[in-house]
Each structure stands twice: as structure tokens, then as C-alpha cells.
Amino acid sequence: MLLLIRGEESAELLEPRKTKIGVLGLGSSIPTPPEGIQAELIVVRTFDELNEPAVSAAVRGKIVVFNNDYITYGKSVIYRNQGATKAAKLGAVAALIRSVTPYSMYTLHTGQQSYQKGVKNIPVASITVEDARMLQRYQDKGAKMVLKLHLHSETFPDTTSRNVVAEIKGSQKPEKVVIVSGHIDSWDVGVGALDDGCGAFISWYALALLKSLNLQAKRTVRAVLWTAEEPGLKGVIEYDRAHKHELENFTFIMESDEGVFTPLGIEYAAGKKGGCVIKEIVKLLAPINATYTKSYDSVSSDITIWAQQIPTGSLYNKNENYFWWHHSAADRLDLIVPDNLDKGTAVWASVAYIIADLKDEFPREFNDISTLSNVKLIEKLKETFKQKYT
Ligand SMILES: [Zn+2]
């Protein structure tokens, strides 16, 4: 995959007053020329606003600032993902995206973005919620805004990274597999403790825990730490390709990629019957109050590629503030509470072990989503979740 290393990044507002603006380049953004880009700013709240005739006619030669109010991560992240392309189509020279977060202490949040084939690639970076709002206020007052932007990065040749795999072979049906997983890559800012160090940790330690208790289930329990999730689920897509021949043997696949705060139970995409089994299993987690369940059409990030194909589950945890830190320099080890990791490991190990040790096969059925064919649905889910989680 393409390897980019972040270089010096800066932005200075020159008009209507001189002040520094914090910027953080987005994944796969091209750099500015060495001398930077100096241009007028135009602020929009939404793509609809960008496409209003008077606005779109004024975009050429300017830097477009997207000041989209956070609704949910899934709904707001399209501005980070597609903002540069939408602005470039109208002749913009760069784009600045308000960080996708419900809360800010002048925090910059990076993340993946995609250029569209045939559309000019322009540099794109995130700015803070505070600066996006300030620029909006200037525009609303009719002030002319000029900004100088430097985004430098170095591109290196493609390189190899690998999924990390460990397993405890099943005693009776070793070919059948239950997977616990998280992703091992993270953004360069911060250390990726929440996204997704803790998910990788509980997956690895679930196996260590089973091993230390000398528990060998009937089926194999496998931990997989996916590589290259952030640039677009690359590790899991390669794993899917390499394991096509044994997908029918994958009994249940779990991934934790939304933080490991206080565990509440299990989210699943496993249909009605599978849901019944999971509800019975989590009753055993009453001593740590992790007995809740939630049913979805697909769960978590990497493993959405198996929605409607293999039953999947994710850690249901008290993560309502997850996006305060997500993809920012604040995603540090300080956020991780050891007790939550212990409990998360306990949930992961218990659920994986019990499913792997079931006498009968885990039900292989899914929510009935009849409006789209399965193939179309899976494509749609993959696209949505690629945008939602990366
Ligand atoms: Zn993640």
C-alpha cells in the first residue's frame, strides 16, 4: 500500500486578521507545493450549500472550508471522506474539513479520505471545530478571508504489512473457527490506544486467558489482529481472499473497534436464532453487568465484509465519548482503564469459548433485509462502514 509520512503542516490566516490555524493532513492527501498555497477561503456547512449556484460559482481558485455540524460519526464523516473531491470538482485549490467529533478542546482529528478518479487531487486537511466556527462567523459578517496553507508529506514505495494470527486448536472440530479480533494499525498522531490498541489487546489476551485456564474448546479459537484497517480494510480484504476456501467453517467472528470502556455486553449481526444463543451466553456475564445485547444488520469495521455471510459480533461498551479522541493526538494510553481491559478480555474469552464449545452448530442466519439482494446489500454495507469507521 502507498506509504506517506507526514511532514511540516501549518496554516496562517492572513486576512481579516493574522492568526495561526491548526491543521492536520488527512490520509492520502497530496502535499501542497513547497511554497504552500495562498488563497481566499469560502465556508460551507453542507454539500447542498456547496452546490447552490451562487456558492459553486464562487469556489474556483479558493480553499473550501467544510463546517459541518456533527450529528453522528457515520453521518458527518462523509465531509472528511468526500469533501476534497466535491470541492475540486468546482475548481477549489484545497479543502479544510472541520474535525469529525462531537466535542473539542481545539483537537484535530485526521482520518482517511478518498479522491475520485478523473477529478483533480487537491490537498486536504482537518481543522478544529473552534476554527471552523470562527471562519464561519467571519464569512457571515462578509469579511474577506485569505489563508496560507502548507501541507508537506513524503511518499515512499509500497511496503508489506501483515495480519497477526494466533489460535488454540479445537479438540473435536479443529476446522471450525471462532475469531476474536481488533486492528493493529493506527493513525500516526496519538498512539492508537483506543483505536484500536485496546481491541487488539483483548483479542490477544482472550487467547492467553483461555490458555492459562487450560481451556480447549471443541472448535478452534483464533485471534486475528487486522493490518491496514485505517486506509480502507486492506488486511481483512486480503484475509478474506486467502481464506475463501474455509469461510463456511467460520462459526462466529468478533471484532472490537469502538474502544474498550466499561463492557455492557455483545452487539451482533446473527439473525434471530443466533441472537437467542448470544442472549443466553451473556446471562453468564451478570457478575460484571455485561448482559446487554443489540442486534444490527452488520457490526464493527473490518468484519462488515462478512455481513450476511458469517455471523458476527462486537463489544457493546460504554463508549459514548469515543469520538472525542478518535484519530487525534489525544488517543493515548492514559485513556485506557486496566479494569475495563480485564472485563473486556473476560467478555471476549467467555463468548468466544462458549460459542466454540457448543454441542450444535451456531445458527447461520441473518436479519431479513429483503429490499436489496444480498450482494448489493453487502456492497452497500462495505461502503458505508469503510466510511464510517476508517
Ligand atoms: Zn479502528
TrEMBL record:
Keyword Nucleotidyltransferase: no
CC annotations in GO: endoplasmic reticulum; extracellular space; Golgi apparatus; lysosome
GO molecular function: carboxypeptidase activity; metal ion binding; metallodipeptidase activity
Keyword Cell cycle carried by entry: no
InterPro entries per UniProt: CPQ, Peptidase_M28
Family: Belongs to the peptidase M28 family.
Protein's UniProt name: Carboxypeptidase Q
Origin species: Psylliodes chrysocephalus
